[in-house]
TrEMBL record:
GO cellular component labels: cytoplasm
Record: residues binding sn-glycerol 1-phosphate: Y172, L173, E174, A175, G176, S177, G178, G203, G204, G225, T226
Name the UniProt record assigns to this protein: Geranylgeranylglyceryl phosphate synthase
Keywords: Lipid biosynthesis, Lipid metabolism, Magnesium, Metal-binding, Phospholipid biosynthesis, Phospholipid metabolism, Transferase
GO biological process: one example: glycerophospholipid biosynthetic process
GO MF annotation terms: imidazoleglycerol-phosphate synthase activity; magnesium ion binding; phosphoglycerol geranylgeranyltransferase activity
The family this protein is said to belong to: Belongs to the GGGP/HepGP synthase family. Group II subfamily.
Pfam families hit by this protein: PcrB
Cofactor(s) this protein cannot do without: Mg(2+)
Taxonomy, superkingdom: Bacteria
Length: 237
């Protein structure tokens, strides 16, 4: 099974998935062994790699280390088309559906397509929906787009449904890295109940309780970045 098929299988069987997000720019390379050990001891099922601004050489170095030292699938979560490395297993081919910046809706995908064609990466088309978080996050700043209101559940649902109708294989509900407020649980619930494709939720989830609440609301895969970055013992609590 490829990674998309594994996610579908987990959803069908009610098994919840967990991704650790590593931003290559924030890796303390002297502590890499410790980090890799903690990843291997964690309940993570996937490693996402990417960030708003990353140099491709650091990305490649990190992916090489992860492939050598863990057994988890490594999925690129790109901020822009320079963040492609053939050594990962898959890439989330994101389209920022909440925004109206054509670069993030289609231009970067056009630039990335010929590069991806030269790799064996599994390309997973993903509708990426940024939700207002109470603070300005890097995604909003770098993409120059306005997140969807936390209150407008109907708009968030219509956006997710449009993504599904466009053929996206996953929907990613994103509050943004370091978000003050995570994606509202009612929003996760409404969307998870009204689309058929798997739902990824991330941004601003800072404790294990928050992960569980997102799962209970219907998230199929939860992404943890900052909390694990700040405390590699996060999953041991
Ligand atoms: C960001 O959803 C991810 O793209 C993770 O966010 O860093 O807040 O965990 P955090």
């Amino acid at each position: 099974l490829n990674i998309h098929q594994q996610i579908l299988k987990a959803k069908k069987e009610g098994q919840k998935l967990l991704a650790i997000l590593l931003d290559p720019d924030k890796i303390v390379w002297e502590n890499l062994d410790h980090l890799l050990q903690k990843i291997n001891q964690s309940p993570a099922t996937h490693i996402f790699v990417g960030g708003s601004i990353v140099e491709s050489t650091i990305l490649e170095d990190l992916i090489a280390q992860l492939k050598q030292n863990t057994n988890l699938p490594v999925v690129i979560f790109p901020g822009n088309p320079s963040q492609i490395s053939p050594d990962a297993d898959a890439i989330l081919f994101l389209s920022l559906l909440s925004g109206r910046n054509p670069d993030y809706l289609i231009e970067y995908q056009v630039q990335a397509a010929p590069i991806l064609k030269k790799t064996n990466l599994e390309v997973i088309s993903t509708g990426y929906i940024l939700i207002e978080s109470g603070n300005e996050t890097a995604v909003a700043r770098v993409s120059k787009t306005k997140p969807l209101s936390r209150e407008d559940l109907d708009l968030a649902l219509a956006t997710a449904q449009a993504g599904e109708m466009l053929g996206n294989k996953l929907i990613y509900l994103e509050a943004g890295s370091g978000a003050k407020n995570a994606v509202p649980l009612e929003m996760i619930q409404l969307i998870a109940q009204n689309i058929n494709i798997p739902v990824i939720v991330g941004g601003g989830i800072v404790d294990l309780h928050g992960i569980q609440k997102a799962y209970n609301a219907g998230a199929d895969l939860v992404v943890i970045g900052t909390a694990f970055e700040n405390d590699n013992h996060f999953f041991e609590l």
